[in-house]
Amino acid sequence: MILAEKIARLRKKNGWSQEELAEKINVSRQAVSKWESAQTVPDLEKVLTLGNLFGVTTDYLLKDEMESEEFSGTEIPAVRRLTLAEANEYLAWEEKSSLRIAAATFLCVFSPIPLVFLGGAAEAAKYGVTENMATLAGITMLFLLIAAAVAVFISCGFKSEPYKFLEKEMFDTEYGVTGMVSERQKAHRPTYVRCNIIGIVLCVLSPVPVVAGAMTGDEFLTVVTVCVLLLFIAVGAAFLVAAGVRWSGMQKILQSGDYAPAEKKRSETEDALAAAYWLIATAVYLAWSFSTGGWKETWIVWPVAGVLFAAVLSLYRLLAKKKE
Asked: What is the value of pTM for the model shown?
């Protein structure tokens, strides 16, 4: 194992990004990048500094034949090593789960449609639907659809449990894993971009039917167009989620993007923030719905909460970067 590979391995073992390592030894990130890609070699002074920082001997760093780490002081905690077989198995699971999670997301957004449609039909005295019948059937279907979606989310969560370390912990990869995943990511990129374009376009176009329906002056038609709006958003969200889950799975293995070592350190705080936020949103939805009985209107909490969550998360990340 050459010096370049040893520096990269020890850096990852400590959970540091190239920027963080560069800062610790007072060099540029580009210098660390060139060391790890074997474009340049650190001078002897920097080798000594690296040895002290990583807690290994200079002999281990400089002698290619020394594969096993020789520690000079405090031993660095071992990290899990991802094999090629594990990486292939995980990517196959992500491909399956992306479709399941996308379907569950579709069900969540679609769930208010029966309630909205039946409520509009009852008010317009169409199809012989009474208000009580509309409310009972609509709420029943809403909870059944959400229950089905939650069941899918929980099932996918349990099945992906063995791979949680990819998201939360620092790990090393077996030779060939990074190259294989990089090639798959490159091949998947056109599909990823296409799905994102379709999803975003559908969400942007979703208000058009409502505007058109409102211009007719027909109240029931306006209700139908609200259902079409939700359908557009549901399909768009499904496309975005299906593409995003597979892409993030590859990023987890490559430890890039949102799963770079520096980002992983922030993820625990963000997870806690997200959990608290959505619990509050759910509490607001249920309190409003039960207190007013306006189940046909309170669904608006979810799209508003989704938009606000993106804003809250962006603000948190901005403040975190400024603090750093």
From this structure: 0.64
